[in-house]
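Example 3.2
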Amino acid sequence: ITSAFENRADLKAEEANIAALAQGIRIAKGGYYPTLNFSAGANSNWSSASKTRISETPEGKPILETTPLNDKISDNRSGSFALSLSIPLFNRLNVKTGVERQRINYNNAVLNLADLRLSVALDVRQAYNNYQTAVKTLDVTAAGLRSAEQALQVEQERYHVGASTLVDLTVSQSRFTQASSQRIQALFDFYFQQRLIEYYQGTLYPAGDLFE
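Structure, written as tokens:
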């Protein structure tokens, strides 16, 4: 049962769902608190229509020259930033409803996990009991097969020396065949119950052989 609790994929999925729902409750509660937003930006209003600027020669004569692109961008740059504070005053009822909804989903998931764990425990226990029965049946059918085989050998010897009839020999052969069939069925049930336990434990390897 402990192995099943540790390995079953359906249990792990439900536990992950509970963790996600718990996080959802914390996120929903965030609606109760104010939020502070910050934004900043930088830009330049340079235009490609402005391509020249006026400068002077060493003698003081004005001249027109092309303004480098980097200078144009640098000379016309600007920046901005803003802070905004949002205080939830009129949506607390919606937030409370959202939180309660998330909490209900969380509680339902916890109950589902408890039910699933109980179902897994019952399945494993039943599979284990069936396995124990299969083990005992192996011992019983092994003893029965040995007894039927020995009885058949004795009956064959008696028949060969004329101390037994064909009917008696046929009955012994029939009992041996029946004991062999019961032994084969017991072996199959044993391996099947063994794999069934692994299935309920969550440790079954799908590509593995049934008979090892």
